[in-house]
Design a protein that fits this description.
By secondary structure, the chain is an alpha/beta fold. Helix content is 41%, strand content 17%. It is built from three helices and four strands.
Amino acid sequence: ITSNCVAPSMMLTPFTTSKMDDRVIENSTQSHPYKRLLTTEETADTICLLLQASQHINGSTLVINGGMDVI
């Protein structure tokens, strides 16, 4: 049995755009190293990568934040 976790940063989703103030989204975008928010497709790609390598990765949290923790 393997157990892993994916921890994405703020994502650009219909919920984000409909429920959050535009200034919050803009501030988050500008503070991001790539100057854009994570997409759901990028999150899904990361999950697929983790599923393919699951024999070799166990008990890990894969943080996908585009380098936010480096700045």
